[in-house]
Every structure is written in C-alpha cells, then in structure tokens.
Design brief:
It is built from 9 helices and 15 strands. With about 350 residues, it is α/β, with parallel strands linked by helices. Helix 3 runs parallel beside helix 6. The longest helix is centred in the middle third of the chain and has 17 residues. The relative contact order is 0.14.
C-alpha cells in the first residue's frame, strides 16, 4: 500500500508526496490586498509539501471579508503573487491558488460602501470585524440572473491571472457559506420568479453558477489544473441545505464528467455518521482524487485502531511539515488513516485524507 511519502498524480501535477497544505487565511496582504515578501517567505518555507494551496484570494476588488486578504483582480496583484510562486518554485514546490468571492460574508465598510451580494437577501446572523469594530452582517443585494455572467467572468479572469502569476492551477472555493455556496444551498438561495429563476429552485439550477465558474476556469487552465472545495454539511456563515447528499451527488457527477484534477471535501468532524455518509456519496459519484479535510489526527486514529483491534498502533506522523519546510518522516510514516492514502492540511492538530 502507498504511504504519505509516495508520489501522487493530481491532474497535471505529479506530487512527490501526499502531504497537501490546505488554504489557510493569514490576512497578511494589508489593505492593498497585494501579496508581499512575508507571504513569499511563509509559503517557500513549506514548499516540500506535495502541494500548497494558497489562501482564499479575492476575485473582485469589492469582495473583501477579512481586512488583509490577498487579491488576484489586477496587474498589481499578479506581480505580488509572482514573487510568491517564484520563491516556492525555487524551493522545489508546487502551488495552486484558491479563488474566492465572499458574497454576503463581506461588509460595505470593507469595500468602499459597496453592498454585499448574494443569491438572496437574508443577512448572516452574527457579527463581522471591520475597521470600525464589530458590526452586524448586512442584508445583501440579490443578484439578478443577468448579472451572473459577470460573476463567472470574475472567476475566469482570476484563473487567467493566477496562471500569469505563476501558479500551477486554481482551486475554486465553493464551501463555507461564501458566494458560490450561497447559490448551492437552499438555506439562503430562495430565488424564484422572473429574472431570478435560472439559478434557484432545483438542484440543477442552484448548481448552475458553480459549474459555469468551473467551466470558465477549465477554459483558461485546463481541467487537469482545476480543483474545487465543497463543505456540504458545514454550517459556516449561517448556511444549511435541506438535502446535502442529493446536492453533492449531482455536483460530484458533473465534476467527474469534466475530469477536474480533484475534489476537496471539507469536514467539520469526519467521525460523525452524517460526514461518513457525505464522504461515501462523494466517492460514489466522483472517481478522481478526493481530498478529505478536517478533524483527522494521529491520536484519533490510534484510538479507533485500539477500539477495532484491542492493540496499540504505532504513533502517527508528528508534524506533517516544519516551518522550515522539511517533511518529517516518523516511525509510522506508513500509517494510513482509515485505510486512505494521505494527509491534507499541515496544522499538526488537523489532518485530512487524500483518496486517489
């Protein structure tokens, strides 16, 4: 059986190991939203991982939800990221960019007074940090159907600029209650009536925007350099769906037909029965590489092993990567979590699994 340190093919990329750094928002780009030398150092230190997926990156200048997140919406952003990818490639690494629009998770005070946008008009229940302190989330403006080609073009342009900046591909952020997820899930997407019916109602309609953005990214980069993150059960940003398994089955089937490089499934707790079922749905309908991210740990896997067999298990991998970027071999580098074949996400307390 393969170990974490065996190569893995993800679309056009051949990874030297199966350790993938998850996109982790660091908000170090400042108010300019331009990637900088500190970010280049941060990512280059971790270049020995099989793949780095950079943090959520704004596809639109008025799509800010965390003061200081980077952008990929103009030439200055491209130039800033080019220094980062150059440092990673010089260190022997591979890097993709997560492209993202927050939708209703944004706030006008972060975006020059521009009202947040979404599939519907309901605000997130909660508060957002702004330059003026914590404020309630605002009611978003419901996008009309005829405005959505412009959203697709944002993701198209972001993919083109990511390639110009030297990235090895892109991951679309379709998870955690951000804009694409706000169209997917019926907890907020209540669209109907003239001008709003093509992207609401049925699963096929609610998935339309996501798939159009996927197709736009594929047209720019090729399917083998495009990945997707989904979180069907995560309640992040006050979002739910009435039938997440059916929604995922449809999306996974569509992704399989497009032969994208991989699907990342973000779990809140992979030990829950509902999360196990959703992972099984993903595996049934998507035959490409499946990255299961969230809640995995060596301690949890040792406990599961003892419960199944009554025997102790070798220690799991320690830190998957040190700040200096050296992948750590341990006495248990052949440990396979739950019979899967890799670990995704570098924070030592949160591991995930890659299923080819």
């Amino acid at each position: 059986m393969p170990t974490l340190f065996d190569p893995l093919t993800l679309g056009a990329l051949t990874l030297p190991n199966r350790i993938v750094m998850a996109p982790l928002t660091r908000a170090r780009a400042g108010r300019s939203h331009i990637a900088n030398a500190l970010m280049a150092e941060h990512y280059a230190q971790r270049a020995s991982a099989g793949l780095l997926i950079a943090e959520a990156t704004m596809v639109a200048a008025d799509g800010c939800a965390f003061t200081g997140e980077p952008g990929i919406y103009d030439d200055a952003c491209v130039a800033g990221w080019r220094d980062v990818t150059g440092a990673v490639h010089a260190a022997g690494g591979r890097m993709q960019l997560q492209i993202w629009h927050p939708g209703r998770s944004a706030h006008s005070s972060l975006n020059g007074g521009v009202q947040p946008i979404s599939s519907g008009e309901r605000a997130i229940q909660g508060f957002i940090n702004t330059p003026d302190g914590k404020q309630p989330y605002e009611n978003p403006r419901r996008l009309r159907d005829d405005e959505l080609p412009a959203i697709v073009d944002l993701f198209r342009q972001a993919t083109r600029r990511a390639l110009q900046a030297g990235f090895d591909g892109v991951q679309l952020h379709g998870a955690h209650g951000y804009l694409l997820d706000q169209f997917l899930r019926d907890g907020v997407n209540d669209r109907s009536g003239p001008g709003y019916e093509r992207y609401g109602g049925s699963i096929e309609n609610r998935a339309r925007l996501l798939l159009e953005c996927i197709d736009a990214a594929i047209a720019e980069a090729g399917a083998d350099r495009v990945g997707l993150r989904l979180s069907p059960l995560a309640g992040s940003n006050d979002l739910q769906d009435s039938n997440p398994e059916a929604l995922l089955a449809y999306i996974a089937t569509q992704l399989g037909q497009r032969h994208i490089a991989y699907l990342e499934l973000r779990h809140m707790d992979p030990a829950l029965d509902a999360e196990r079922r959703i992972a099984a749905v993903a595996r049934q309908h998507f035959k490409g590489p499946l990255l299961r991210n969230g809640g995995f740990s060596a301690r949890r896997q040792r406990r599961r092993h003892r419960l199944r067999t009554g025997l102790p298990r070798q220690p799991g991998p320690g830190r998957a990567a040190e700040p200096g970027g050296r992948a750590e071999r341990t006495a248990a580098e052949d440990l396979l979590y739950g019979g899967c074949v890799g670990v995704h996400g570098l924070p030592s307390s949160r591991r995930s699994v890659c299923q080819p």
